[in-house]
Amino acid sequence: MQIQIILLIAFLLTFSIGCSAQKTSAENIKKIAKLENARAAHTATRLLDGKVLILGGMQKNGVFFDEAELFDPQKNSFTKPKHKMTKKRVSHTATLLKDGRVLIVGGWSNRNAPERSAEIYDPKTQKFVAVGNTKFARSGHGSTLLENGKVLIAGGYDGERNLSEAELFNPKTNRFESIKKMQTARNVHSATKLKDGKVLITGGELRRGKVISTAEIFNPETNEFTNISTKMNAIRYKHDSVLLTDGNVLIFGGSDDRDWGGKLKSAEIFNPEKQTFTPTKDMNFARFKISQTATVLKNGKVLIAGGSEKAEFYDPKKKSFEIVSGNLGKSLHYSTVTLLKDGRALILGGYEFVHGGEPTSTNQAWIFKT
Description:
CATH topology: Neuraminidase
Radius of gyration: 22 Å
Helix content: under 10%
Mean pLDDT: 92
CATH architecture: 6 Propeller
Largest sheet: 4 strands, antiparallel
Number of domains: 1
Oligomer: single chain
Number of helices: 1
């Protein structure tokens, strides 16, 4: 009898340990249905009804898209809207307006020069309608919805030079209005709206081969930019930044002026009240070409899922990064991460860099779930 009891206890312990191991090894990131087109440098915008609008991007160099797709989070599937964009676009921006329409600005439609064109997507009709041109051709620019409903378009590259020029889109007139310039020309920088409605603009490329660590603030009440006296702790471009729930801004990754050879693990926190940049712990992986690849989850953590095979969290309470279970399989650049209404996150596309080969995008999609 004692032997039987011992064997039973041993079995229960083994079963319990096995179940515990199975629970802790459950993956947070899993593959779902594939996109119609393989895409990188596309945009993914959550609409008011919870669906996600995916626009443009490229399969590889010179193969650009004007096709759009819609992701339905209830079915975990993709469908095509009734119409295409008016232009093929890569490295454009897409901004959800307060009325539910989406403003699409700039990007490359060919390999000659970026676009001045802009268009509006209306979810009610699923149509794309051209609107007035921007004052400057732009790619790698920032596009930020302001509290007054207008959209700040700043910086980028016009095909010849990096821009300090900025403008506002007025959704009431569907036109662009010139405003004063930024303090510094910036391309592939980051722009983050703060809790007070101002916009923090960090880093970027001043000119070819010259990456900067300066930052500035846009004030929508005066439509002016002012320099922040302190600089970031690292020069960065092709990085990302997100507004944390406490009002601070997490700035992370990117590269220095060595581009692929200078990818960064480092991260820092901007405090809007003190206007200071403070280093935080490094990420687990160096990441760049990560615009639109991070989102703040409902628990306040930041999910970062671009530029590496693995995703990770930033935990504001611990001020550190932790690896997320599940594997993307490739170090995907210029992919997108979009928070869904139910708290999950949609991870889409991106391209893998191949030494001596052609960068090729994926049509794979993943869902992150806590």
